[in-house]
């Protein structure tokens, strides 16, 4: 397939028998690996009260990733803005941009990224998502040069114009991204239903802005690539187990792969999971390339953001290496 921009969405997943510190070190190793293989950006997600996710303090984690890399863009996929004040996020990402200039992205979502009890522990109101559009604009304003006599300023932050992205899985985010003239990332890797409708709405309603002249769309996909289809399918069972735990309200740390989940399903679970994970590309490079070409041609997306919950770090690095080969990214220099 022709070259397409390829990026990484990571959760700093904590595997059984591991620790949050090791998960973050593994994430940084993956970012270094992705940088060598020509990936465009490396994003971390914000989730709270999740036993398998070590990137809850997203801005802090991104600093650790950025310090270990030199050229790949680093960002949030995303900061859940209802959990924060726009000023604090402007200061945090202004700090990152000051330390790692020209490499920072700020992806924004309006979901809380957690459950109602944890929202209360975060001291956030359940209605905070209703102010998301105005909060995005307030945050955007903090990155502009300060006006004379401006009473509240983001320092660091003002004048840095950190690129904003709108993240979403519905028409709401697509319409907001289009209205504000911002790039849009759709969470098709776990919420695929509105993908085509959202892409259509975003492109049709897009208004050029100072940040972006024409629509730019990124779609999330899951990818499990190995030397054989059988090996890839086995790697995929780790993610299937994780989502199965979510369906059953029994989240835990990342579990090792198994040969088969045929005896694990309760009625309706496999069908539900297959639907949620519809845009998962699992197999050898040849198998994945064929399916990926169809997806890119069908959606017309500008960039793919790849997520992979793989238990073993060596297998995870290999999967992203093979995925780069599938997308025909620039190979690392030899020597």
Automatic annotation (TrEMBL):
Residues 14-302 form the Luciferase-like domain. Keywords: Oxidoreductase. It is an enzyme of class 1 (oxidoreductase). Its EC number is 1.-.-.-. CDD domains: Flavin_utilizing_monoxygenases. GO terms for molecular function: oxidoreductase activity. It comes from the Bacteria. It holds the Pfam family Bac_luciferase. To bacterial alkanal monooxygenase alpha and beta chains. This is LLM class flavin-dependent oxidoreductase. It comes from Nocardiopsis codii.
């Amino acid at each position: 397939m022709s070259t397409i921009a390829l990026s990484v969405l990571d959760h700093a997943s904590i595997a059984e028998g591991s620790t949050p510190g090791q998960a973050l070190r593994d994430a940084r190793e993956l970012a270094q690996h992705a940088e060598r293989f020509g990936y465009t950006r490396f994003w971390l997600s914000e989730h709270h009260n999740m036993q398998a996710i070590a990137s809850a303090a997203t801005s802090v984690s991104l600093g650790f990733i950025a310090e270990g890399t030199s050229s790949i863009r680093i960002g949030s996929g995303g900061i859940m803005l209802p959990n924060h004040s726009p000023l604090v996020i402007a200061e945090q990402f202004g700090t990152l941009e000051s330390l790692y200039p020209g490499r920072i992205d700020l992806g924004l979502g309006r979901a809380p990224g957690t459950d109602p009890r944890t929202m209360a522990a975060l001291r956030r109101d359940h209605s905070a998502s209703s102010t998301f559009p105005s909060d995005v604009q307030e945050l955007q304003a903090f990155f502009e040069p300060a006006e004379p006599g401006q009473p509240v300023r983001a320092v660091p932050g003002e004048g840095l114009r950190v690129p904003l992205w709108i993240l979403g899985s519905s028409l709401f985010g697509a319409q907001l991204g289009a209205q504000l003239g911002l790039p849009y990332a759709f969470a098709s890797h776990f919420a695929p239903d509105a993908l085509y409708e959202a892409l259509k709405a975003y492109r049709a309603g897009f208004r050029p802005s100072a940040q972006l002249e024409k629509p730019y769309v990124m779609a999330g996909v899951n990818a499990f690539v190995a030397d054989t289809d059988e090996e890839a399918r086995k790697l995929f069972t780790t993610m299937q187990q994780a989502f199965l735990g979510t369906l059953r309200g029994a989240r835990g740390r990342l579990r090792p792969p198994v040969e088969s989940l045929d005896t694990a399903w309760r009625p309706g679970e496999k069908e539900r999971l297959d639907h949620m994970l519809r845009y998962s590309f699992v197999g050898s490079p040849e198998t994945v390339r064929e399916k990926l070409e169809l997806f890119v041609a069908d959606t017309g997306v500008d960039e793919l953001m790849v997520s992979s919950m793989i238990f073993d770090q060596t297998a995870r690095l290999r999967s992203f290496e093979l995925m780069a080969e599938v997308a025909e990214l620039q190979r690392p220099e030899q020597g």
